[in-house]
Design goal:
- By secondary structure, this protein is α+β, with helices and mostly antiparallel strands.
- 26% of the residues lie in helices and 28% in strands.
- It is built from seven helices and 15 strands.
- It has helices spanning 24-28, 46-59, 70-83, 128-133, 156-167, 210-221, 269-281; strands spanning 4-7, 10-13, 31-39, 42-43, 90-98, 116-123, 135-141, 172-177, 180-184, 188-193, 196-199, 226-227, 241-246, 250-257, 260-261.
- The strands form two sheets. Strands 7, 8, 9, 10, 11, 12, 13, 14 and 15 form a nine-stranded mixed β-sheet that branches.
- β7, α5 (156-167) and β8 (172-177) form a beta-alpha-beta unit.
- The longest helix is centred in the first third of the chain and has 14 residues, at 46-59.
- The structure holds N-(5'-phosphopyridoxyl)-D-alanine.
- N-(5'-phosphopyridoxyl)-D-alanine binds at residues 35, 158, 183, 186-188, 207, 209-212, 245-248.
């Protein structure tokens, strides 16, 4: 069965989907995206992804006028999953909205340019084998811009960091700026210090991950002390656990940061409890749309 995507008002086979060379997403990276986890055809925390999508649209000033309503977008996600045979098992839906196609000029195009809307769906295999052993990460300077809270398709900072990680045989890069651990290249980062789970507070230096918010809720429900206070680079040698969170990874323990072994080199108790809590959360009807 050929993969079906949604582009500008229609479902079509992936290899027939075409965007204009003038699309501002292609030319300027002028757009936003979302990646939503789906379980048996339903969206995990779908409403939160829509809220963040709207914040992103407002943040880069793309009007929602020509875009489908939230109800229509949810229906599109559901139909896309169905058309791709993804109503059983786990998948992600990728959504991208750009400012549309217009002759190249940096300022917004004049007139009523329609945003480009693209969605695709992919089957995923949850990363359980890596979760069992724990992941490796590298520590790198955060070279990204000053609005990391916006989930824009300008991802060169993430691309370069992730490539460095992969070249080092690692799965993720942990980024730091001004002596502070911000987040991962495509994840949020948490550490356990003196029994307290710490993560960077929301603000312009990190993306407010949907999984980050769920993680905080699960930790609170476990009675685990948590502080939204950034870890300092100089505190990294003291952490008993480190883990990263994202839509596709849930909470992934880091057991090696550069050459430094974290804890005893195996996934720690907080990450293991979170792994079990996520497994339950993913089938919690209250979190599925
Ligand atoms: N990345 N921080 C950054 C910089 C990210 O790119 C992501 C997500 C996250 C985690 O957000 P969430 O929990 O909502 O997935 C944090 C996605 C998955 C990606 O770029 O593919």
């Amino acid at each position: 069965m050929s993969e079906i995507v949604w582009l500008d008002g229609q479902f079509l086979p992936r290899d027939e989907a075409r965007i204009a060379v003038d699309d501002r997403g292609f030319i300027f990276g002028d757009g936003i995206y979302e990646v939503t986890r789906c379980v048996d055809g339903r969206l995990f925390e779908g409403r939160r992804h829509l809220v963040r999508m709207h914040a992103g649209l407002e943040g880069i000033r793309i009007a929602a006028t020509h875009l489908p309503s939230d109800a229509e977008l949810l229906a599109l996600h559901h139909e896309l999953l169905a058309r791709n045979g993804l109503t059983v098992g786990q998948a992600t839906v990728y959504l991208q909205i750009t400012r549309g196609a217009a002759p190249r000029a940096h300022q917004f195009p004049a007139g009523d340019v329609r945003p480009t809307l693209f969605l695709s769906a992919t089957r995923i295999t949850p990363a359980e084998s890596l979760r069992a052993t724990g992941a490796r990460a590298v520590l790198l300077p955060d070279l990204r811009w000053a609005r990391c809270d916006l989930k824009t398709v300008n991802l060169l900072g993430a691309v370069l960091a992730k490539q460095r990680a992969v070249e080092a045989g690692a799965q993720e890069a942990v980024l730091h700026r001004d002596g502070v651990v911000t987040e991962g290249s495509i994840t949020n980062v948490f550490g356990v210090l003196d029994g307290v789970v710490r993560t960077h507070p929301v603000g312009t230096r990190i993306l407010r991950g949907v999984t980050r918010d769920v993680t905080l809720e699960l930790l609170h429900a476990m009675g685990q002390p948590v502080e939204e206070r950034a870890l300092l680079v100089e505190e990294l040698p003291l952490v008993s656990e480190l883990f990263y969170t994202s839509t596709t990874q849930d909470a992934m323990p880091i057991v090696l940061l550069d050459e430094r072994v974290i804890g005893d080199g195996t996934p720690g108790p907080v990450a293991r409890r979170l792994g079990a809590a996520f497994a339950a959360a993913l089938t919690d009807p209250a979190r599925l749309t």
